[in-house]
Write a structure and sequence with these properties.
This is Glycine/sarcosine/betaine reductase selenoprotein B family protein. This protein is an alpha/beta fold. It has helices spanning 3-9, 22-32, 126-134, 154-171, 184-199, 211-217, 239-255, 287-312; strands spanning 60-65, 68-69, 93-96, 103-104, 140-141, 144-147, 176-180, 203-208, 221-224, 261-264. It starts with a helix and ends in a 7-residue tail after the last helix.
Length: 319
């Protein structure tokens, strides 16, 4: 009897039914696209940690997202939209927390094959947080939620965006922040923001799907959902999944014993784990498709660079 059949006899899950190695996958993907300078991901040995210090029912909480405000005239941004570099934003933005906002995730590299982008509550749990306040599980929502740009430049994120998020959180007198990323680099961005907030006295929890990116960076608290990128707040069109996911994140925020606390959401995306084989997997792409993707990536890179240069030159950023 071979080892594979023996594992099946023991009831083992398939070998690939484990958290996706996004750092390895994206490295191999961009090498295949012709970019031969592999990205260096943020990695720290020490992790700041600030205990919440009060019951959640008395705490003021804000939400931090990498989703982008809808921008009319900037191309497809709704359900099923392709990657859209024109819809990116480059400066921290804030919006009122008491009403809904039209946020999209077409500007980042989510799992488009397995994410419909139809239900914003799957990546932006503002409504669920309002419900938690109404039910007495949270004290109150901060006056504003905040958007942080997805930036490959860790230096810019740490020197510009992190201090700006901290300043706005202090203005709103928040006790804690819930951070919800989307793409792999989004997960690094919010990890850096979480570290900065914790170092300055604000407790945080990340709700994310890219386990390797977050844990490699090193964060205080992390709720890992083994879902396709773009669904960190729960399965789409599944209110109970979203409610349970937020409830677990709040539990981690309140009860984590120290830094590097990771809790895995027990929910499964579906019974078949084969979806984990698709994202940025060069073994599943033919040469013709790879060339088309190479051309598309280069075009998007040039567009994003031009938009970013305009933003840094002092022109107003979208949102």
């Amino acid at each position: 009897m071979n080892s594979n059949s023996g594992q099946q006899d023991l009831g083992f899950a398939p070998v690939h039914d484990q958290p996706i190695a996004y750092m390895r996958r994206t490295r191999e993907w961009y090498l295949a696209l012709g970019y031969d300078n592999p990205y260096t991901w943020a990695h720290y040995a020490d992790v700041p940690f600030h205990a919440l210090g009060k019951p959640l029912s008395e705490a003021t909480v804000t939400l931090i997202t990498t989703a982008a405000p809808y921008q009319e005239g900037k191309g497809p941004q709704g359900p099923g939209a392709p990657y859209n570099a024109a819809a990116k934003f480059y400066e921290v933005y804030s919006m009122p927390g008491e009403r809904d906002a039209d946020l999209r995730i077409s500007h980042v590299a989510i799992d488009r094959k397995h994410t419909s982008m139809e239900d914003a509550r799957a990546w932006f749990p503002l409504a669920a947080l309002r419900t938690a306040v109404q039910e007495g599980r949270l004290g109150r929502l901060a006056a504003r939620f905040h958007g942080v740009p997805t930036n490959r430049s860790q230096r810019h994120t740490q020197s510009v965006d992190c201090p700006e998020i901290l300043r706005r959180c202090r203005e709103d007198r928040v006790d804690a922040a819930i951070l919800v990323p989307n793409c792999p680099v989004c997960h690094q961005t919010v990890s850096l923001v979480a570290r900065h907030l914790e170092a300055h006295g604000i407790a945080t929890v990340i709700m994310g799907c890219a386990k390797d990116v977050v844990e490699y960076c090193g964060v205080p608290r992390f709720l890992f959902s083994d879902f396709p990128l773009g669904n960190a707040a729960g399965r789409p069109h599944d209110a109970e999944s979203q409610r349970q996911t937020l409830a677990l994140a709040l539990q981690v925020l309140q009860s984590a014993p120290g830094p590097r606390t990771t809790v895995q959401n027990p929910q499964r995306w579906c019974d078949d784990p084969d979806w984990k084989l698709d994202y940025c997997n060069v073994e599943r792409v033919g040469p013709d498709e790879l060339q088309a993707l190479r051309d598309e990536a280069e075009s998007a890179r040039k567009l994003a660079r031009g938009l970013r240069e305009k933003s840094l030159a002092g022109k107003p950023a979208p949102g």
